[in-house]
Specification:
The protein has one domain: Vaccinia Virus protein VP39 (Rossmann fold, 3-Layer(aba) Sandwich), CATH 3.40.50.150. Helix content is 25%, strand content 24%. The protein contains six helices and eleven strands. An eight-stranded mixed beta sheet has the order 6-5-4-7-8-10-9-11, with helices on both faces. A three-stranded antiparallel beta sheet has the order 1-2-3, with helices on one face. It is globular, with a radius of gyration of 17 Å.
């Protein structure tokens, strides 16, 4: 059994050729990783959105970065926790994506010089530290609670690096993404209505609410045939 700083690890194959490590117990990714990567590229939506380079903020296990790399993008994954960075680098080696995706320890609250990208993606924490009980698992707590940066910190950092920031949002909190000097250009709601995807850009404008075909997005990354209604 694979082990590391997280304890026992499992190896997943989220897309052909990818071999991604994640903790057997604790914080594990779900379907939102496919949705976020797909939304950033317009997969599952009404039109594709071209991109050649991307940065993921709060990369965790690196799954979203690796999914984007599987579509041919050159990706940088930034993560504050060195243990996550080590795990993501191991996954990149196992997937033979070391030349396409690079992970490093970075804090979104610390402005830094970096080459720009076409798009930034992130799944930021949404809960304030005082908002109810916190998970005893420190990494689950960091993923869900704003202990190391607010949603605005993630968006502001993203807009310094790319013209658009695509992120996962809680539906009731989407309005909080309308910071001064930026607007929500696109949004889409996942089936069930519990998760919203949003794209934030500089400037002013109206929001285009797009349909989102999650099965088609999932199939595109998994290399499966896309089922169409008869």
């Amino acid at each position: 059994m694979l082990t590391g700083p997280f304890g026992a690890l499992t190896e997943e194959t989220p897309a052909p050729g990818l071999r991604v490590l994640q903790p057997e117990r604790g914080y594990r990714w779900g379907v939102e990783v496919y949705a976020l990567a797909a939304f950033a590229l317009g997969i599952g939506g009404p039109a594709s959105v071209p991109a050649a380079t991307a940065i993921e903020l709060g990369a965790g296990s690196g799954i979203v970065s690796l999914l984007l790399a599987s579509r041919g993008l050159t990706v940088r994954g930034w993560e504050l926790d060195p243990a996550w960075v080590q795990l993501a680098r191991a996954s990149a080696r196992r997937s033979r994506f070391e030349g396409r995706v690079r992970f490093s320890v970075r804090d979104v609250r610390s402005p830094t010089r970096a080459a720009p990208a076409d798009v930034v993606v992130c799944n930021p924490p949404w809960f304030a530290p005082a908002a109810g009980p916190r998970s005893p698992d420190p990494r689950k707590a960091a993923a869900r609670t704003m202990l190391h940066g607010t949603v605005q910190d993630f968006v502001n950092a993203g807009l310094r690096l790319a013209p658009r920031v695509c992120l996962v949002s809680r539906p009731e909190r989407v309005h909080e993404l309308r910071f001064e000097g930026c607007f929500i250009a696109r949004s889409a709601v996942l089936p069930g209505g519990a998760v919203t995807l949003a794209e934030v850009r500089h400037g002013e404008g109206t929001t285009v609410c797009e349909p989102f075909d999650l099965p088609a997005a999932y199939a595109a990354f998994r290399g499966l045939p896309i089922e169409t209604p008869s």
